[in-house]
Design brief:
This protein is an alpha+beta fold and 149 residues long. Helix content is 36%, strand content 31%. It starts with a strand and ends with a strand. The relative contact order is 0.14.
Length: 149
């Protein structure tokens, strides 16, 4: 029997994949547990619509990420910190602080786990932090750390 999987099934296939399995396995396990539906004109049509909608949603998400990357190019976040010897900070500027500042000043929400550069921001100067906004789309934001008077 041919079925369309509604979820990933170990040793059978991935979600939205059409697979051929024994009638007993299909009826007694896959269909009973709502892991699959039998292949029919209607189910194939629904599957194609879902794939098309997912593709369109993916394109839109990528376009939004590219627009956000363009917006981030023009942003420089300013931080002041107490400084010790050799212009080294007492502590460091965390990615959480960068995330909060971006949200407060520019109303842009980016999860701190999206930052590619995880290194400590513990010296005075200008940093360019890379952020993976979407698969294949990387934005760059500038961070300027100056001495607190």
């Amino acid at each position: 029997m041919e079925v369309i999987l509604l979820q990933d099934v170990k040793n059978v296939g991935k979600k939205n994949q059409t697979v051929k399995v024994s009638d007993g396995y299909a009826n007694n396990f896959l269909l009973k547990n709502k892991l699959a539906v039998p292949v029919s004109k209607k189910s194939v049509e629904i599957l194609e619509n879902q794939k098309e909608n997912a593709r369109i949603a993916e394109e839109n998400a990528k376009k939004e990420a590219q627009q956000l990357a363009e917006t981030l190019k023009g942003i420089t976040l300013e931080f002041t910190a107490k400084v010790g010897k050799d212009s080294k900070l007492f502590g460091s500027i965390s990615l959480k602080q960068v995330e909060e500042e971006l949200k407060a000043k520019h109303n842009i929400t980016i999860d701190k786990r999206k930052f590619i550069d995880k290194g400590p921001l513990d010296m005075l100067g200008i940093y360019a932090l890379k952020i993976e906004l979407h698969k294949g789309v990387v934005g760059v934001i500038k961070i300027h750390i100056s001495e607190r008077n």
